[in-house]
């Protein structure tokens, strides 16, 4: 059998997978988790050496298209899963042709929305997941990406300093344009609203949504959050010539939302008394880029914000405000961040990402200090956290589950 | 229910030199099933998305009934993209799976129930309303997904290549189901496909687009029998129509050593010394006299009652489209043989060689 593997960096172990067997029937020995739920297409999580990959069976043109779209999304710096390969030319033992497979890398420490909702660590889980999804949708739209099928099940969530960061997992319907029309954005939002409400109603019907929560009301949040953020990022602002500080003010507001302004259009009216500004190109990841530049740490946006705050406190506490920022950052990394995250015993490291653990430690220190009525040193905090909090947390490095629990209707028809 | 009117509707993408959809004029009648078909880049999907509100309209208007929707947000247009959302929710009953969009829209419970029951009746899903989707067969699940669009009672259904994800066999079954359901519901429908067979089998009328320009809108029968130009002639029909440049002779067209008689007023519309002649494979016969188009047989495709000959004319490049003729399946010529074909006179399609426009009746 001649199969064709188009891969970004081919892993020879791919050749050993049972490509002549329909994905639905793959033997358990290859699977990283037993299939749970049902999805529109057959999806399986497969162990490949040290890593876990997601395999989706889908027609070849669609597989190639989605592979290319995911590559382009990542090139644009959008949070999407990483495509690894398309396997085509599959033939079953009896000679019948099998659909192609799209392979993506499993996103470490990511959670499907059902896992997020089932944990109920905090009561505002719904709010935080929808906020993350709204940020993702705004980012995609700013980059000219029409998603086409926005839903919680087509998204993965990663912890981000107590909040969530959302990643696109399903790009089957996505299209990348130079720029989106208002109608395309509205359509994405309309679909998002319907899908999210449906998914939450399903959680409700399955007893996984807190009583008294109204799925439709929660789903409405995506519209509000999206509109707020979109307006803040793109709207035009006018002010008097004397109020030029408002330009800096606008940029600072965008930075606080986690966005950098790459291009700001500024013009005056004819007699020059009014100034009009409008951000033209904004780029998410203000804090994470800054932290990356200073320390080389690659973390989510809110985690970066948290770490940068700690870096600032460190600078103040060590009286190094006058020193070069990069030197101080290097010292903070060597003396604070790395020693502390290394204190976590190896057997507990699959619980949370190091940056999230660091964030939780800072929270925990505040909590311990408040209870004690005085500052608790970070070393004591780590000891207490590792002994009392972390062991009770579930392992989240590879939370698998079929990314959707939808039901296939592309099965054989009974007409 | 409503008519749909494209009134010189134009879409030009920012930075593009030519419109993706250029002054499109189509009137879709109330309850009609209109198929937009064309090759990739023809503008068919863009035209549908202009109607859905996803693409801006840069010129002209789009009307649904009497309402000008040209600049209306998508959700206010009262159109439904069918098969947009395939997802069925496992913990919800079939009735809830069908009605949840109405619940979101804030419709009263009684009305939701009534509309769901009506849709279930049409879709033969009545006995299953209280079950969970898991208990349904594949076909029933597909009908639930359609039911979702039906309960919204939109004025227009929009379908954008809904069958492209299905395998060939399933595609044929599903297209029959969609067509028959549309007829039962009588909801105006605009359907996009690149597949001319799908277009011809499903549509009340078919609109063929190429490079953003409407080529022809007609019933499938008329489209097949009377293509308005060379593009439509070559695009509609499988196997494709034979199209060849032939010299105009006195009183007819010169096919090899034979003159095919053609009415003088048709020939009068030719602007050069040649015309494009189109003949469908089934409108050719082998001439007993040994005169006509000499074709060397390259491939014989035997289908039982009929056989298709794929051949080439002397001097034809290997890269040119093959000449295709349908012949009696019991006595087909052999591969390598040279056969002479003459068109059956009543089905000639003659086009102006310069403009490509039809000049025969």
Automatic annotation (TrEMBL), chain A:
Name of a matching Pfam family: Kdo
Domain DUF4032: 229-390
Keywords: Kinase, Transferase
Molecular-function annotations in GO: kinase activity
Keyword Membrane included in the entry's annotation: no
Endpoints of the signal sequence: none
Protein name: LPS kinase
Organism encoding this protein: Ornithinimicrobium tianjinense
From TrEMBL, chain B:
Keywords of this entry: ATP-binding, Nucleotide-binding, Transport
Nucleotide-binding in keyword set: yes
A Gene Ontology term for the protein's cellular component: ATP-binding cassette (ABC) transporter complex, substrate-binding subunit-containing
Transmembrane segments: none
Record keyword Transmembrane helix present: no
One GO BP: carbohydrate transport
Single GO molecular function: ABC-type transporter activity
SMART domains: AAA
Start and end residues of each ABC transporter domain: 4-236
SUPFAM superfamilies: MOP-like (SSF50331), P-loop containing nucleoside triphosphate hydrolases (SSF52540)
Gene3D superfamilies, per database record: 2.40.50.100, Nucleic acid-binding proteins, P-loop containing nucleotide triphosphate hydrolases
InterPro entries, A to Z: AAA+_ATPase, ABC_transporter-like_ATP-bd, ABC_transporter-like_CS, ABC_transpr_MalK-like, ABC_transpr_MalK/UgpC-like, CysA_C, Mo/tungstate-bd_C_term_dom, NA-bd_OB-fold
Identification of the protein by name: ABC transporter ATP-binding protein
């Amino acid at each position: 059998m001649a199969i064709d593997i188009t891969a970004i960096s081919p892993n020879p172990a791919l050749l050993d997978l049972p490509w002549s067997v329909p994905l639905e029937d793959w033997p358990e020995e290859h699977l990283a988790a037993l299939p749970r739920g049902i999805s529109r297409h057959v999806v399986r999580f497969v162990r490949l050496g040290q890593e876990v990959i997601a395999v989706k069976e889908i027609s070849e043109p669609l597989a190639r298209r989605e592979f290319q779209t995911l590559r382009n999304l990542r090139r644009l710096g959008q949070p999407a899963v990483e495509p690894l390969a398309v396997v085509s030319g599959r033939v079953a033992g009896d000679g019948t042709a099998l659909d192609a497979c799209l392979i993506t890398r499993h996103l470490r420490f990511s959670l499907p929305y059902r896992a997020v909702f089932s944990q109920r660590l905090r009561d505002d889980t719904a709010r935080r997941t929808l906020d993350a999804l709204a940020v993702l949708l705004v980012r995609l739209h700013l980059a000219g990406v029409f998603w086409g099928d926005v839903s919680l099940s087509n998204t993965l969530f990663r912890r981000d300093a107590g909040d969530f960061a959302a990643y696109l997992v399903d790009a089957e319907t996505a299209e990348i344009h130079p720029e989106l029309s208002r109608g395309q954005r509205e359509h994405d939002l309309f679909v998002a609203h319907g899908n999210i409400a449906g998914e939450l109603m399903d959680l409700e019907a399955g007893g996984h949504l807190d009583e008294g929560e109204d799925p439709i009301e929660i789903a409405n949040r995506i519209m509000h959050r999206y509109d707020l953020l979109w307006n803040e990022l793109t709207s035009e602002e006018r002010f008097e010539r004397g109020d030029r500080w408002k330009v800096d003010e606008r940029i600072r507001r965008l930075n606080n939302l986690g966005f950098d302004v790459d291009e700001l259009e500024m013009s005056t009216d004819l007699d020059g008394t009014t100034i009009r500004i409008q951000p033209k190109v904004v780029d998410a990841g203000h804090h994470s880029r800054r932290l990356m530049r200073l320390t080389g740490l690659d973390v989510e946006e809110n985690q970066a914000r948290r770490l940068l705050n700690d870096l600032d406190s460190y600078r103040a506490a060590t009286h190094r405000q006058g020193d070069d920022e990069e030197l101080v950052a290097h010292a903070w990394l060597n003396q604070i961040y790395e020693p502390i995250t290394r204190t976590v015993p190896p057997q507990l490291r699959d619980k949370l990402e190091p940056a999230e653990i660091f964030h939780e430690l800072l929270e925990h220190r505040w909590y311990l200090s408040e209870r004690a009525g005085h500052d608790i040193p970070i070393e004591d905090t780590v000891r207490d956290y590792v002994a009392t909090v972390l062991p009770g947390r579930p392992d989240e490095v590879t939370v698998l589950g079929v990314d959707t629990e939808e039901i296939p209707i592309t099965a054989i028809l009974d007409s | 229910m409503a008519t749909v009117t494209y009134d010189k509707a134009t879409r030009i993408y920012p930075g593009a030199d030519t419109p993706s959809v250029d002054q499109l004029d189509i009137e879709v009648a109330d309850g009609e099933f209109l198929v937009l078909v064309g090759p990739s880049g023809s503008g068919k999907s863009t035209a549908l998305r202009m109607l859905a509100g996803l693409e801006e309209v840069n010129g002209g208007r789009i009307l649904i009934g009497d309402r000008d929707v040209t600049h209306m947000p998508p959700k206010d247009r009262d159109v439904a993209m069918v098969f947009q959302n395939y997802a069925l929710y496992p913990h919800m009953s079939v009735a809830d799976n069908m009605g949840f969009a109405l619940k979101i829209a804030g419709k009263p419970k009684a009305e939701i129930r009534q509309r769901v029951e009506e849709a279930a009746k049409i879709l033969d899903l009545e006995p299953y309303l209280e079950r969970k989707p898991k208990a349904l067969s594949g076909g029933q699940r597909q009908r639930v997904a359609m039911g979702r669009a039906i309960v919204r009672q939109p004025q227009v259904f929009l379908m954008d290549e809904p069958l492209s994800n299905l395998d060939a066999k399933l595609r044929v079954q599903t297209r029959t189901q969609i067509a028959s359901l549309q007829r039962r519901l009588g909801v105006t429908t605009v359907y996009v496909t690149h597949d001319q067979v799908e277009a011809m089998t499903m549509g009340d009328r078919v609109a063929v687009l190429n490079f953003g320009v409407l080529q022809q809108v007609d019933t499938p029968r008329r489209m097949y029998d009377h293509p308005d130009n060379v593009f439509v002639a070559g695009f509609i029909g499988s196997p494709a129509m034979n199209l060849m440049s032939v010299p105009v002779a006195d009183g007819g067209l010169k096919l090899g050593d034979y003159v095919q008689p053609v009415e003088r007023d048709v020939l009068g519309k030719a602007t050069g010394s040649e015309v494009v002649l189109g003949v469908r494979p089934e409108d050719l016969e082998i001439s007993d006299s040994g005169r006509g188009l000499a074709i060397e047989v390259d491939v014989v495709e035997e289908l039982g009652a009929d056989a298709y000959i794929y051949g080439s004319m002397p001097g034809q490049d290997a890269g040119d489209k093959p000449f295709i003729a349908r012949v009696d399946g019991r006595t087909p010529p052999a591969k390598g043989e040279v056969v002479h074909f003459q068109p059956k006179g009543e089905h000639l399609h003659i086009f102006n060689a310069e403009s490509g426009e039809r000049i025969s009746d």
